[in-house]
Amino acid sequence: MTRWITLSAFAFLFLAxxxxxxxxxxxxxxxxxxxxxxxxxFANADFNLSGKHAVLAxxxxxxxxxxVSLDGLGVVAVVAASDTLGLKQTGxxxxxxxxxxxxxxxxxxxxxxxxxxxxxxxxxxxxAVHSANVQIxxxxxxxxxxxxxxxxxxxxxxxxxxxxxxxxxxxxxxxYPPLVKGVKxxxxxxxxxxxxxxxxxxxxxxxxxxxxxxxxxxxx
Length: 220
Hints:
The chain is an alpha+beta fold. It has one domain. It is about 20% helix and about 45% strand. The protein has 3 helices and 14 strands. The strands form 3 sheets. Strands 8-7-6-3-1-14-13-11-10-9 form a 10-stranded mixed beta sheet, with helices on one face. Strands 2-12 form a two-stranded antiparallel sheet. Strands 4-5 form a two-stranded antiparallel sheet. Strand 4 and strand 5 form a beta hairpin.
């Protein structure tokens, strides 16, 4: 009898822990200033010449972080790194966060915390946090997904990769994986990626490179 009670108590605690560890789920978009879907020869030629900037975007569908509900809110991280993203960094990256203007102060902090948990060291050196209208929209075209992000001075527009039009060397693959953990995403073309705001002392605009990811994320 005592053993049964002990096991029942353990099961209760396990289930309670599972409830407390509920996931935050949503959509994810990433775009960089270099190709991520590319051949090794092309990637090697670009090492530390390009790909030092990125825009990362999360659209929460449902879930809480630090006991704060984030349902329906979005956050964008604009990153400037010392080296090509995906390679070993010789210096600290800088990041500006753009959080949903509809978020409360507690939700803004939670959105940044969620993004930092997924991005690790890449997103720790915060230069500024801005509040703006964050639009992250997805479309489904013939079974493939594309996305558009508009958040303050950051813009990303993607299109699906065309294996005929977008192949160059014929050895293309996802050479650089996504920059954050907990993501399930497929490579896409960045029809447009730009940042024209203040804070990083750098602005950029890139068109039609094979440098994006579109998919979903899950955080515990």
